[in-house]
Amino acid sequence: MELQNALKTYFGYSHFREGQEEIVSALLSGRDVAAVMPTGAGKSLCFQLPALMMEGVTLVVSPLISLMRDQVAALVQAGIPAAFLNSALTERQYALALERARAGQYKLIYVAPERLETERFLDFALRAPISLVAVDEAHCVSQWGQDFRPHYLAIPDFVDRLPRRPVVAAFTATATQTVRRDIRTLLKLRDPFQLVTGFDRPNLCFEVRRGRERDKPGWLREIVAAHPGESGIVYCATRKGVEQVCRDLQAQGVSAARYHAGLEQEERRESQEDFLYDRVRVMVATNAFGMGIDKSDVRYVVHYNMPKDMESYYQEAGRAGRDGEPARCILLYGPRDEATARFLIRQDRENDALDPAALEQVRERDYARLKQMTAYCHTQGCLRQYILDYFGEGAAGRCGNCGNCCRVTEEEDITRQAQAILRCVAESGQRFGRGVIADVLRGSESQKLRQWGLKRLESYGALKGARREQVDGWLRALEEQEYLLQLGGQYPTLRLGERARWVLDGESAVTITVERRAEPEKKRAPAADKAGDERLFQRLRALRSVLARGQKIPPYMVFSDATLRDMCAKRPGSEAELLEVSGVGRTKLERYGAAFLKEIRENT
């Protein structure tokens, strides 16, 4: 079957997205692949379509049970024979799945990396006609990636034991050049076709709100209220934070669930399914939730606390708008967030197996990443541009659709405050961090300032009366403009930059951009702007929910929001016309076509 026909028949799409056709063609030609594609760019199709066109079976190595279950369910809905083999199955279910796999009933089998090392699975694999091994979330193979999983290192040994080496493909959403090099080397890819499709997600609107901790509950209420009936995720840094935020939302009548590693497995499973099946609208979670969650209609992701690094932030924020529809990614930054992130880095036990020197190197890397994450929260420039620059992809100017680009700004002269700050850093011997310097300048009565003799400094109390967050903002502005340098890892200290003397000598003025926050415009597809189309869209969503309940699957697995919007725009009146809608393939046409055509006729 020709590629375009297969794409439409199995998945309902008339055109490939960027990079997909090149990757599929490379795999079908027998070449290994290493691909970096942002969340929502269609990585899964890149190995699912070749699996259907190759002889034999494709193994998909995946790190999480939820990822396997969701993708297998979506494949089955599309009429594609697939299964997963993991610890979620009972002994009887596992034996039955393995028996069917031996009989060749599946084209794709999802498996956890740990399973590859078991004799039972290996016995099957040595006899099975395996044509492709696809490694999802491939950054897990690298200790420099944000989710290092030691069992991923065993994948090449498994491949080497097979009687005939299959094609090997590695996919990830976020990877620095170092991680990409590790993926190629540690997975032993042979002359791989390499592709980085770009990290930009134009449908996502990024925003950072800076303020006090007590501002965050009000901000969150405002954001959730702006998205009635729509799905959202709220990420918190700690389990305690999840519990508090979830209670607060529920007390306000918001349909919310919680998810973190401290809950019983059954509650985590129920919370996840409630969210996927639209029984709750808001999931409040730590970063334990989300990898592999294929829910396409998440309209907003809020980070209640700053994450530890840009890789984690972009991966988590990228769970919004996977259907290509407009979505918002909002980070709420408070003064305690950086300290919390440093604590989490110190408490991280995932890399304890490393020798002390390597462990220290990893932690220094983590502190450097945190510094870049913090700079994102304080940059005055375009947020999208900052993200793309971080991942090594240049951006052409301001995007016009992020919180910073949409704010009304004015310049404020802070030369007097800058001189006081720089004098304080110099007088204290350039031995202290941002928190201590702020305490000195604000005239704190803390015991530690007395013990260290800092109350005797001439700059003590020089900015008395200023709010803590104001002083912190001035300090960060001086760092961004390189009047100050932050050095060190776990306990960073401030040093004077080369330009500091110009300010101290009165030869240079210092200004900062003061912003008055304006809500970024929430863009919608043109068809949705029409009242009639919006009414039809809501009717189709309601029908989708009814059909999903009957099938006991999440609504987005029937059709995505993007597919429903395309139906509203095209108003198909026949099966042939419905097949022209993006996301409608043969199997789904047969299963759901009559119901949707009837709904469209009755509401047009």
Description:
With 604 residues, this protein is of the alpha/beta class. The chain has four domains: 3-196, Rossmann fold; 204-407, Rossmann fold, CATH 3.40.50; 409-516, Arc Repressor Mutant, subunit A; 526-602, HRDC domain (DNA polymerase, domain 1, Orthogonal Bundle), CATH 1.10.150.80. The strands form four sheets. Strands 3-4-2-5-6-1-7 form a seven-stranded parallel β-sheet, with helices on both faces. α11 links the parallel β10 and β11 (282-285). The model is unreliable at 523-529 (pLDDT under 50).
Q: What characteristics describe this protein?
A:
Arc Repressor Mutant, subunit A; Rossmann fold; 4 domains; globular; 24 helices; 6-stranded parallel β-sheet; alpha/beta; 604 residues; 7-stranded parallel β-sheet
